[in-house]
Amino acid sequence: MKDVIPPRATKDAARDRLIGILLICCAFVCFSMLDATAKWLNQSIPSLQTTWARYVSNVILVAAVLNPLTRPGVGRTTRPGLQAARSLLLFASTATNFFALHYLQLAQTVSISFATPLLVALLAKPLLGEAISPHRMVAIVIGFVGVLVVARPGLGMHPAALVSMAGMLCYALYNISTRKLAFYDPPQTTLFYSGLAGVVILTPLLTLFWEWPASGWVWVGMGMTGVFGGFGHFLLILAHQRAPAAVLSPFIYTQLLWMIALGYVVFGDVPDRYTVLGALIVVGSGLYLLLRERGGARA
């Protein structure tokens, strides 16, 4: 005789899923605000200074929350080399993204970044030993066609699109290293090390690119980059505590709507037809891959 799920348990699960969806949508609002703030700051200060501000404010925020002085175990890792490599990959991803934002529209950079899950799926075989099904390979190929439509290398797009694609590769490797670390270190330890590379690398070089902010609003923007990034990741964690990843994954694409809206309101940018077409191709391939993965999981 099959077990009967109590109605209250079903309602609680449904409510948790709705809360999780709301949380992850809010997380991507924060990430969109982070990119918009970085693009705005790039009009006043160098992109490396924006990157430095993002990591300094983020490290201060994480240290305040985790408090390594009262919780010394949070800094203890069993894979220091992998933690360092992951932190370097995140730094490289952020630096290249902020540089690309100086020249590209918000909608263009986020459309390119949407290929990250596809690249992770491609690299999962050699780096994690995960099999690549024919359906996954089809989705990967179509997704990269969409990225090429957005980037249009050599056909009128700014060369910064190639920098954005390099950042996408770094972020995909960052995601894979995060997966590997999940088997060895607790998430608090991995979060603690995330922003350290950016601070350690850029702080000694600060005098080479530092430009004194022209107004107090620039200082506020520099601080808000860490707040938007840190709070966005915090909401992301809360969302995954409420709902399965398969339920939350499609809502990553809501970020495109926020990026288009912020690009238009703040910078007056209107996506061209190539950006819209390429974004639709990437989103469609990502949703196809998601549906196939969910179907395989159920089977």
Features:
299 residues; mainly alpha; 14 helices; single chain
Task: Give a written overview of the molecule.
With 299 residues, the protein is an all-alpha fold. The chain has one domain. Helices cover 76% and strands 0% of the residues. The protein starts with 6 loop residues before the first helix and ends with a helix. Keywords: Membrane, Transmembrane, Transmembrane helix.
Quote the distance from N terminus to C terminus: 22 Å
Beta-strand content estimate: under 5%
Largest sheet: none
Uncertain spans, ≥5 residues at pLDDT below 50? 1-5
SSE layout and pairing:
Elements: H1 7-41, H2 47-66, H3 80-101, H4 106-113, H5 116-128, H6 134-151, H7 160-181, H8 187-194, H9 196-202, H10 206-209, H11 216-242, H12 245-248, H13 254-267, H14 273-298
Helix pairs in contact: 1-11, 1-13, 2-3, 2-8, 2-9, 2-11, 3-7, 4-7, 4-13, 4-14, 5-6, 5-7, 6-14
Give a brief outline of the structure.
By secondary structure, the chain is mainly α. It is 76% helix and 0% strand. The two termini are 22 Å apart.
